[in-house]
Amino acid sequence: MALRLYIIPLLALLLVAGTGSARATDYALLYRAVISPDSEVARVEIRLRGERLPRKLVLHLNPDRHLALRSDAGLTLEGDTATWKPQGPDASLHYEFVISEQKSSGRYDSLLTEDWAILRSDKLIPPITATVAKGLVANAELQLELPQDWSSAAPYASTGESSNHYRIVDPGRRLPRPKGWLILGNITSRQDNIAGVDVRVAAPAGQGGRLQDTLAFLAWTVPEVKAVFPGFPDRLLVVTAGEPMWRGGLSGTRSLFMHADRPLVSGNRTSSMIHELVHVATGISGGKEADWIVEGLAEYYAANILWRSGAISDLRYQQTMAWKENWGRKADTLFVKRSSGPVTARAAVFMHRLHLALQDATDGAVGLDDVARELARDRGRVSLPQLKQIVQELAAGSVDVDVLIAGLEHASAG
Hints:
Strand content: 25-35%
Radius of gyration: 24 Å
Largest sheet: 6 strands, mixed
Number of helices: 10
Number of strands: 22
Mean pLDDT: 92
Shape: globular
């Protein structure tokens, strides 16, 4: 009995010590942005708090948009790079970010108006390379300070402190950073849970006439996309707006932008919305001359998801692939730095032929879905050698990627 009385206090002490040790491995990381229509720039603060902080942060700046960097200590600037060595236990870095960015076409992919703003948080907060001690974990949050009558939508869950205060999730990163689209201001939105995905569609007030249509289209298609890519994010924000925003679609982390005038299904029976959903699902990018793999997958599924969901018939799907094949003949090669137009159409035809070849070689056991899932497994850069290896393993060497590519080259030359 006496021994038991000694053991209980000892266990209590160990539990307290263990809890204290766990807390010592954490630090608070706050990204704070003050945004107002009265200013062309957002005033940004990166603040670190804790007994132990990262030893060094290297910020990779856009010199046209990240301005006036300053800190109480440990900051050095060299060209487009800022190196910050935080001096704990409470350290802050400040800068200004130019919100509006106009493309060569005259349209905007980031814009601040009197009533609303649309931008990407991974532009607001530049890429950061961090030197962090092993076991040191950040509790990261994004706080948006907005005019009193403004609200926000972001691809993150609110912390509960306010509707404009978000908890940042960035798996695999030593220093979590906000990523994805943001819409702020006088906005309107529709929201639903679709196949386990918290989906929100948002637009500036007065431009939300198609929000319910878009949400219904996503209810039809997101389950099919998720069936191909089970790792689809558990949150999706779709931002839409009209003039003078860029007249296209752009994917981001757990989010995408789509111009309000873009049809959900185009006249050639493909869907820009599904194309961008696939980019969100895979999270992949092209290595050297491999952008065609990324874009080809997205464009293949832009029609294939419509077909497999019953939105278009077998005949219409075949006509769509024939149209892509004809358009793709205008491209001389797949191996370009940026895939678009005829190159992307040609890449989609390659994916279609690869699917048929895999089905034929494996008696229907393997198809393009299996290749796509493997390419998206690590959500990183993909390459032609990687694609070849995946096909080699799935089809036991009975499908030759080079032969399929050569077939496209021959068709183009003919």
